[in-house]
Specification:
The structure holds 2 protein chains of 2 kinds. By secondary structure, chain A is mainly alpha-helical. Chain A has a domain of 115 residues. Helices cover 64% and strands 7% of the residues of chain A. A 3-stranded antiparallel beta sheet of chain A has the order 2-1-3. Chain B folds into 2 domains: 68 residues; 219 residues, 3-Layer(aba) Sandwich (Rossmann fold). The model of chain B has no long low-confidence stretch (mean pLDDT 92). The longest helix of chain B is centred in the C-terminal third of the chain and has 33 residues. In chain B, strand 4, helix 8 and strand 5 form a beta-alpha-beta unit. Chain B is of the alpha/beta class. Classes of the chains: A mainly alpha, B alpha/beta. Chains A and B meet through helix 4, helix 7, helix 9 and helix 10 of A and helix 2, helix 4, helix 6, helix 8 and helix 10 of B.
């Protein structure tokens, strides 16, 4: 069968199944919002008098709330069906299925979803960079009055040192942009050197403190770790807790020494050094296994979250949070008892 | 047997994907319909997180850093919910910050889900405050060590931090006795240990909830530099059960809200997926040894 034909069949089956689901019970995948009126008192200033600003916010609510409000008063307008949120819900479901479809084969739906993710991420980072970095930090230091009037009324006034620092940062930023110029690209090497120098300086100190010294101290454990009875400390050691605590320390110290031996290449891995290195390899393999296990657990959790979204928010097959009045889950649950 | 081995050797990987989808979707449907979850026994790292928060007296400020985005929400949102649930129940002053750009929205969602829904008596700006996102990664942490207000001059809503009651008495990050970070990568728990905990001289304690990928890298810091650790969804489920059991209403017949069972619900699909993986590993090894034996027989 041709790939294009396969995809037509797969999409047709999904459309038919979704159509059947939409015709059962309350249907599926609808979003509702609640109107919340907001207001704020604006204090008088040199440019304007005191006033009250009012606006309405639309907050997403569970379908149950809409159903209850409709039953109480069919003409109510506080809770309404939201086209925007519903379309967003269907788009989220479509993109989830489009990404999953790659597991079967590469296809235009997957490529569309991939392109949208990249585009949205790049645009979001651009907006965040402008509003969270350039506006409060750079413009806030160089043109504080403008930023305070237009964007951030509570922005504190910059000190002279901050203004100088921001001028320096602006100069470095402009120099970095010279990479894009047809000539003078070498100018960008200066800010890059500055970034590397500062980062290295910060990281070396912190790594030595937290990873080298603190971790070495944490490894210097007594090989026999007495555990005293909490009821009567003078009563001597508790046998099994002492054995387990000592064994834990011995395994830790032996593991560190053996792994270090494995990475010590100035001595040939033969004899005692060879045996220690082999034990080190075992420790490393156990570590990689644990890391792999945790990674699998993480990925399965993410998969479960997406499938939960499809079953709960989109298909309305399950309802763990009790968001709907009558749903498929309740009907099936009553049958299962 | 040989036919079975031949089938295994030529098995299309898409059948494995389908089996994984069924093993995850099946338990989700079952748990979603019946509401039953698997029992959890908290491990020492999860109990340590609970104890550190419980040891603080009401009104103590805690710094809660949301260092993740929705991509890791499946693992970390249940932890965030339970951590804020315990802090709110304990009456701690919660100061929320984010070093990831999408963190502030996740903070708002958590505040809405837990504080506004179940602790309406807590006041914004007094009992909790969202300081929003700051760019700069480690440099923000370094600035917080000397001047907290310089790192976060205004709240997410644009209020100067000097006017926020919840930040009374906070000049530096080490004025917080406890730092809670919910971490998905860089910058996250590791950077907090390297730049803040190591430099604070033991003034601040730190607990973290992190993704499965990060967990093995953080274990060496426990319990000296890191006082508690929730590793992946398993850690979240253990901690969730601990918080739920301690905060359960006196009337034991009252159901725990579904939002506080999110991690425990996700342990069902974990069980299904892990059983499938163990079965696949065993089958893969059987196929490997059978193939090797047949080759040895053929050559001899």
């Amino acid at each position: 069968m041709k790939p294009s034909k396969t995809w037509v069949i797969v999409v047709a089956v999904i459309v038919v199944l979704v159509g059947i689901r939409m015709s059962i019970g309350q249907g599926m995948a609808r979003a509702y919002v609640e109107r919340v009126d907001q207001s704020v008192e604006v204090k008088a200033s040199d440019t304007h008098g005191a006033s009250t600003e009012k606006w309405a916010e639309w907050h997403r609510v569970a379908p149950k709330k809409f159903e209850a409000a409709q039953m109480a008063d069919p003409s109510q307008t506080k809770f309404v069906f939201s086209w925007a949120n519903t379309i967003g819900l269907w788009l989220a479901a479509f993109f989830t299925l489009a990404i999953f479809s790659f597991l079967y084969r590469d296809n235009p739906g997957y490529r569309l979803a991939e392109a949208v993710i990249i585009g949205v991420s790049a645009a979001y980072w651009g907006v965040i960079g402008f509003w969270d970095s350039l506006v409060p930090k750079l413009f806030g230091a160089l043109t504080p009055a403008l930023v305070r009037d237009e964007v951030l009324p509570s922005l504190p006034s910059p000190t002279a040192g901050e203004v100088v620092a921001m001028c320096f940062a602006l100069a470095l930023g402009l120099m970095l942009l010279m990479r894009l110029a047809p000539k003078g690209g070498w100018i960008s090497l200066w800010p890059i050197a500055f970034i590397i120098g500062v980062t290295a300086g910060l990281k070396i100190v912190s790594h030595v403190e937290s990873d080298l010294i603190a971790q070495t101290v944490a490894t210097l454990k007594p090989l026999v770790q007495p555990v005293l009875s909490p009821e009567s400390p003078e009563g001597g050691w508790l046998m099994w807790p002492t054995i387990w605590a000592s064994l834990r320390n011995i395994l830790l110290v032996v593991g560190v020494l053996c792994c270090l031996t494995y990475f010590f290449f100035s001595v040939e891995h033969k004899g005692v050094a060879g045996r220690a290195a082999r034990v080190g390899i075992m420790y490393l393999m156990i570590t990689f296994g644990a890391a792999f296990g945790f990674t699998v657990m993480g990925r399965v959790a993410l998969l479960a979250a997406r499938i939960e979204f499809l079953f709960d928010d989109w298909l309305w097959l399950i309802d763990p949070a009790g968001k709907r009045i009558v749903e498929v889950a309740a009907a099936v649950g009553s049958i299962l008892g | 047997m040989s036919k079975f081995i031949t089938i295994l050797e030529g098995l299309d990987r898409r059948w494995i994907f389908l089996a994984m989808a069924i093993s995850v979707a099946g338990p989700i449907l079952y748990i979603g319909i019946t509401g039953k979850t698997l029992p959890e026994t908290p491990t020492p790292t999860a109990r340590a997180v609970y104890k550190e928060i419980e040891a603080l007296s009401p009104g103590t400020p805690v710094l809660i850093s949301f260092d993740f985005d929705p991509a890791s929400g499946g693992e970390l949102t249940p932890m965030a919910t339970s951590l804020v649930h315990q802090c709110a129940a304990r009456g701690l002053r919660m100061v929320f910050i984010a070093l990831w750009p999408l963190g502030p929205q996740l903070i708002d969602e958590t505040i809405k889900r837990v504080i506004l829904a179940d602790y309406p008596n807590l006041k914004e700006g007094v009992d909790y405050v969202n300081l929003g996102f700051q760019s700069g990664n480690e440099s923000v942490m370094k600035v917080m060590l000397t001047d907290f207000a310089k790192a976060f001059p205004i709240t997410k809503n644009g209020v100067a931090v000097g006017d926020v009651v919840a930040l009374k008495g906070i000049q530096r990050v080490d004025n917080f006795p406890l730092l809670i970070t919910i971490s998905a990568g860089y910058p996250g728990a590791k950077e907090w240990i390297q730049y803040v905990i190591s430099s604070s001289g033991g003034k601040i304690k730190m607990v973290t909830g992190c993704t499965g990928v990060q967990t093995p890298g953080l274990y060496p810091y426990y319990p000296v530099q890191l006082n508690g650790l929730l590793g992946a969804i398993k850690g979240a489920a253990e901690y969730e059960s601990l918080v739920n059991s301690s905060l359960a209403p006196k009337d034991s017949s009252a159901a725990i809200p579904a939002k506080y069972l999110e991690a425990q619900r996700r342990m069902g699909p974990q069980l299904g997926a892990h059983l499938l993986m163990i079965a696949l590993i065993i089958l893969g090894n059987i196929a490997f040894f059978a193939q090797r034996n047949s080759k040895v027989r053929a050559t001899s």
